[in-house]
Amino acid sequence: MQSPGPLSSFVRFVVCGGGVGLVAGGAVPLLAALVPWALANAVITVASTLLCTELHSRITFGTGRRAGWRRHWQCAGSATAAYVVTCAAMVVLHAVQSSPGVFTQQAVYLSASGLAGIGRFLVLRLFVFAGSRREGIPGDMYAVAA
């Protein structure tokens, strides 16, 4: 199976990740009606990260197979890094401006999220799922056993 090109992969990344994000955003308050909000958010975050990793493996980066635990952990790590970037952006905003307006907060958050998303896409494409393009090369540390 031939891997999709960079632009096609990026569009798939946005559609898969964005679609799961929208569903997850609606699922948290529904689950929070039954359990504490923090627990609902944690459960949905874990479930949506697992789902996104599978979608990225099969669709976004065209491996045609399940992601495997190594890739799940790598994707979870990249998602955690993206979370840290967005939190840091908000901390800096509040350090620079004590009472930013809602639109300013959204602009900073969405900008940081967009940059973190681009960074995450690059990490997934160039490192996490790059092995699917190099399979069959003897001794390749990124090769994935079938």
Quick rundown:
By secondary structure, the protein is mostly helical. It has helices spanning 6-32, 37-60, 68-96, 102-128, 131-134.
Overview of this structure, please?
This protein has 146 residues and is an all-alpha fold. It contains 5 helices and no strands. The protein has helices spanning 6-32, 37-60, 68-96, 102-128, 131-134. The chain is globular and about 50 Å long.
Fold topology:
Blueprint: H1 6-32, H2 37-60, H3 68-96, H4 102-128, H5 131-134
Helix pairs in contact: 1-2, 2-3, 3-4
Uncertain ranges: 134-146
Query: Could you tell me the strand content as a percent range?
Result: under 5%
Sheet with most strands: none
Helical/strand content category? mainly alpha
Count of runs of 4 or more consecutive helical residues: 5
Helix content bin: over 70%
Distance between the termini: 13 Å
Shape, please? globular
| Strand/helix succession | HHHHH
Q: How confident overall, as mean pLDDT?
A: 85
Number-wise, the strands total: 0
Radius of gyration (CA) equals: 17 Å
